Amino acid sequence: MSRFLGERYQALEAYTPGEQPRDMRYIKLNTNESPYPPAPEVTAAMNREQVELLRLYSDPTAGGLKRKLAELYGVKSENIFVSNGSDEVLNFAFMAFGGKGAVFPDITYGFYEVFGDLYGISCEKVPLKEDFSVDYRDYLGRDKLVVLANPNAPTGMSIPVSQIEEIVRTNPDSVVLIDEAYVDFGGETCLSLIGTYDNLLVVRTFSKSRCLAGGRLGYAFGSPELIADLEKIKYSTNPYNINRLTLFLGEATVDAEAYYQEKCAEIQKTRAWTAAQLTALGFEVLPSRTNFLFARSPKIDGGQLYRELKTRGILVRHFTNPRIAQFNRITIGTPDQMEALLEAITRILNETV
Asked: Which candidate, 215, 279, 286, places its Cα nearest to that of 251?
């Protein structure tokens, strides 16, 4: 670091994204991207005219996309905030609503802690239960920003909406943020609660189920007042936060909803098959409602398995946190990719034993 970096940031531990190596062609099962391309209609929508329009600023209100999302999900445009990836919503939420502190699980999306540190927010990390599930009672009446990924990452596990509602109800003077990045793969959304509770913020992304990770597009649902708070932060930092092409492709993506529901169903089917195969190999596989599996084997160290797979051209995500160091997070790819993964794991286990 330079000698000019402010003292408050010098000890900041930045978020570490999943590796993106370029030294060879990998089967990428490490960053929870979709193995499928955007819908054909989305690809076909891109044309020379749209590229030429890049000379003009994008719509800072994201009005067209908000209207389409509102129609799709049965809410109003004023209930929607559109962002540069869901990480931007999380960033703004910590900035705007974290003044009394924040609370979230000890094993969850790593950016929560980074945002807390970035803004000097006192963060409490609540240990997951022994089986890696969230105990909703740990978040009742906390009177601080509650942040829960549901389904959780990297575990893939979820809690029911009835428990989410109890958390929201017992924290009336603080925002409860539910990160639903993976909800389309079998999770249960709490979107219906935003009309009842003005302190609930539901965050979504186009990166996973909508095959648009490279487009950097996210959004959130909430009361008009919460959305106005986020808009104030946006207009105070970067009003043109989403580029024209991403907004355009986002609208085309909403129009192709049937395609994405079909792909989500395919991923869930492949997930179930992969989980069964790993279990047959002796792995412990946590119950997942996401587009990934969290698994460990008693036959091989988690870090060793990650490294052995990488040498064979297959990337999975390994974490060094001691409590989960024996696990690897495995993104669900195409059936062919998962067959290649299982074949490689079988060979590795045979060589190890």
From this structure: 215
